[in-house]
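sry for the spam today, last one i promise. struct tokens for design, 314 residues
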């Protein structure tokens, strides 16, 4: 039986099982010794570390880079393509769970779920007080979705069920989504000026890096809530801190940050008007299981020189 040696960064044990008995996983290194450099024929990642041309050049026999996740901003897909190495990812299976989490964060920030939880456990909670922790109405509010791809469309569907008005900004208007979901395209500045909630559901690309900074926060309503389910660098972290501490916006809920994680003493972590979760967008049992399967299927196909079930075009 042929054996395959691959490089993986702290892979989940279940993924290692799925890869099969003929796959040996080496711990991550970007400075391999001669044997490792020669033996490695595949790379499995899940968001970090970075896979770029110089790294791939250190492993001249790599045939496949398989990413456990849909976002491939940490992989230089073009550099891999130039070296004849296909990159696989896991699209589709995580759209609904990521949209669910977007709504979870939206609702948590709007209705003080986290501060309410803390208060309900504290000695201060001695009797029901109708004047505390008054949140923002979700029903009837305007949600501006930035990124009307698969995940954005599932967010729109959920928001409609909450009686929200949904407007969106995308690189190109999405006529099919408008028709199917009753959402309206708007310019970015209009989304920022008119939305009660702004949800980031776009990939991280050179166009979206730093998309939301001081100028954008200045356009937003002081009652607005920002949700970031995209990638940390879509938002300027310092500008977010300024916006939350000066009342430029009311609150934010973020599943991703820049850097990720934030340093443990980062001032954002002390803010009550920030809800933060540790990159849980796709973290539901069925979704994560399917992601593991797709990662293993892409890897196996690449190792055998077959077309990948899910290849990233680049
Ligand atoms: C993705 O699929 O890109 C998610 O961020 C999980 O890594």
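last one done:
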């Amino acid at each position: 039986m042929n054996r395959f040696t691959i490089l993986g960064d702290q892979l989940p044990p279940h993924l290692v099982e799925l890869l099969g008995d003929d796959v040996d996983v080496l711990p991550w290194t970007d400075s391999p010794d001669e044997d490792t450099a020669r033996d490695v024929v595949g790379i499995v990642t899940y968001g970090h570390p970075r896979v770029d041309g110089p790294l791939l050049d250190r492993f001249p026999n790599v045939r496949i880079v398989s990413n456990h996740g849909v976002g491939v901003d940490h992989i230089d897909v073009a550099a891999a393509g130039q070296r004849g190495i296909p990159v696989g990812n896991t699209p589709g299976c995580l759209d609904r769970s990521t949209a669910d989490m977007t709504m979870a964060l939206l609702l948590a920030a709007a209705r003080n779920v986290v501060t309410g939880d803390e208060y309900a456990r504290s000695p201060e909670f001695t009797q029901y007080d109708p004047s505390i922790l008054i949140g923002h109405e979700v029903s009837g509010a305007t949600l501006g979705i930035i990124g009307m791809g698969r995940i954005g469309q599932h967010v729109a569907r959920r928001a409609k069920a909450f009686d929200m008005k949904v407007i969106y900004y995308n690189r190109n208007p999405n006529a099919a989504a408008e028709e199917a979901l009753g959402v309206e395209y708007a310019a970015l500045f209009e989304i920022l000026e008119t939305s009660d909630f702004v949800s980031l559901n776009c990939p991280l690309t050179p166009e979206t890096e730093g998309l939301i900074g001081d100028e954008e926060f200045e356009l937003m309503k002081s009652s607005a809530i920002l949700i970031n389910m995209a990638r940390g660098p879509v938002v300027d972290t310092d500008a977010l801190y300024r916006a939350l501490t000066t009342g430029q916006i009311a609150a934010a809920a973020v599943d991703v940050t820049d850097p990720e994680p934030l340093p443990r003493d980062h001032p954002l972590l002390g803010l009550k008007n920030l809800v933060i979760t540790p990159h849980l967008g796709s973290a539901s049992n069925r979704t994560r299981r399917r992601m593991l399967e797709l990662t293993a299927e892409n890897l196996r196909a690449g190792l055998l020189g077959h077309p990948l079930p899910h290849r990233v075009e680049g």
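The pocket of (2R)-2,3-dihydroxypropanoic acid is lined by residues 46-47, 69-71, 94, 281-282 (CB under 6 Å). ok im logging off now
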